[in-house]
Amino acid sequence: MPKPGKKIGVFILDDSALIRKVMREIIGQQPDMEVVGVAPDPIAARELIRSLRPDVLTLDVEMPKMDGLDFLERLMRLWPMPVVMVSSMTERGSEITLRALELGAVDFVAKPKISIEQGMQEYADLIGDKIRTASLARIRQRTLSEAAADRALRPMAPLANRLLSSEKLIIVGASTGGTEAIKEFLMQMPSDCPGILIVQHMPEGFTRSFAQRLNGLCAITVAEAVDGQRVLPGHAYIAPGNAHLRLGRSGANYIVRLDQGEPVNRHRPSVDVLFRSAAEHAGRNAVGVIMTGMGKDGAAGMLEMRNAGAWNVAQDEATCVVFGMPKEAIATGATHAVGSLRSLPGLVLDHLAANAGRALRV
């Protein structure tokens, strides 16, 4: 993290001279950051990074001499720092990017379009926001025992008849650092858990790969949400990139609603949009979960959930990559409990089990 008043030092690692030039220009536009170094490949970058000590590294996914993932894995083991991946918007690119987030990258951004167009300033603002957020991220070396513990995560015991899972719902929102937080949360969910609706701030094209990756790791079924589908126990529904996810009703059933409404808190999908719909349609049958992320998206909606009778929990500062969204939700009085990432599934399921007889049909 840069010292107060000091510009954020950014190192650009990309094999394309044109991309390096564009990235240098974009970062140069930001009043609070500067480019401290560039390199075309990891071999050339290693000693420069060690000597220049940048605050944030932007890292290309596919490069010559050493794959970006191999370099990232070594970097996070030997010299951990905030990393923003620069990824191509392809299926393979999204899969590699998700693996990079598992290895410790803070966030990612799509490769810039080289042509001059109206959207270029918006894209430059996006890169600036990503780097700014990454500079605030909590980065630490992961021990081998911690990595082994993550791989050994197992679902909690089946709920059986402990709660009316068809009437209960779990509503989740996250942003920066959320892909790994959501993975850890869902991997502990038993196959008969209540239906789960999730908003994770991700661009279009990445959420499907994210859902498919989780589906292969979890005891529950995980998929990208589809408009109009019924919300079922043992299933998790992830908001598609560039679409708001809302909870709806059709007779006695909960259903998924997707729309292209205006961004809320600069996001589509927005956590506030999902939480507000849960307040309206689920009330005390919902449990809200807010996880790591920058900004305040979700805080107002979670307060509406609480006022409607929902029970809410936030991830604690110590285990957040960025303690922004949970901090805002806690500050508004929207949460009932705060817990570490590893403890959140137990807190949620214990609360649901303890209140199984208090379901409210709406």
From TrEMBL:
Q: In this protein, which residues make up the domain named Response regulatory?
A: 9-126
What is the protein name stated in its UniProt record? Protein-glutamate methylesterase/protein-glutamine glutaminase
HAMAP family associated with the record = CheB_chemtxs (MF_00099)
Query: Where, by residue number, is the active site?
Result: S175, H201, D297
Q: Which lineage ranks, top first, belong to the organism behind this chain?
A: Bacteria, Pseudomonadati, Pseudomonadota, Betaproteobacteria, Burkholderiales
What CDD domains does the entry give? Answer: CheB_Rec, REC_CheB-like
Going by the UniProt record, its keywords in alphabetical order are: Chemotaxis, Cytoplasm, Hydrolase, Phosphoprotein
Instruction: Report if keyword Cytoplasm is assigned.
Output: yes
